[in-house]
Amino acid sequence: KNEVEQSPQNLTAQEGEFITINCSYSVGISALHWLQQHPGGGIVSLFMLSSGKKKHGRLIATINIQEKHSSLHITASHPRDSAVYICAVWIFGNEKLTFGTGTRLTIIP
Amino acid sequence: GAGVSQSPSNKVTEKGKDVELRCDPISGHTALYWYRQSLGQGLEFLIYFQGNSAPDKSGLPSDRFSAERTGGSVSTLTIQRTQQEDSAVYLCASSSQEWSTQYFGPGTRLTVL
Questions:
Q1: Kind of pairing, strands A10-14 and A103-108?
Q2: Which phi and psi angles does A17 have, rounded to 5°?
């Protein structure tokens, strides 16, 4: 079993829908990242979280340390949000970043 | 420059040759990270530097891989005696401090024939 699990693996939605992508992990962590990888391959770091909630534009990320769970929400989704969204964690005592397998999001106009 | 730069953007090499990949982080960023993404696969963490020091090198796939960073700035990832399974996009990122937002470079696409 992977230490970091994402769901769903694939998500297709209509433009304007509210999107939720989930990330669960099984170990103690120092911090969690959400990354976005566009179809051309470029990667953008969206959020780094160690507790609570962060918001940037239409994107919201939350983390529940006790439940070992994080969610990435996209409000008023748009076709340009189509990308692979990746969750990654820094594990306590482990100087490595461990990645989830990614969620491929497709927003249809 | 304004962002993270990597060179070369593409590298084609023959099996058994050595290659050196370069990363120029954002000026002033103390943390630097190397990742690998094989075709159709997810991201794989290789190593990170805090300043010139790499706390843990166990993420490097084999002893053919090495990385160094000098002057707290430029980093090089060296692959000796390349193998076909080394073919991938090698990505570099930097951040102002450990565990903060990372800024990614465009990557180096390595093809080993």
A1: parallel
A2: -70, 155
For residues B9 and B2, what is the distance between their CA atoms, to the nearest angstrom? 17
Judged by a CB distance cut-off of 8 A, whether residue A97 touches chain B is yes
Contact assignment for A44 to B43 by CB distance below 8 Å: no
For chain B of 113 residues, list the mean pLDDT of each consecutive stretch of 10.
90 97 95 91 90 86 94 94 96 85 93 96
Give the Cα separation of A107 and A83 in Å (integer): 9
Cis peptide before B61 (omega within 30 of 0): no
For residue A8, the distance in angstroms to the closest alpha carbon of chain B comes to 15
A24-83 per-position pLDDT tens digit: 999 889 899 999 998 877 899 999 999 999 999 999 999 999 999 999 999 999 999 999
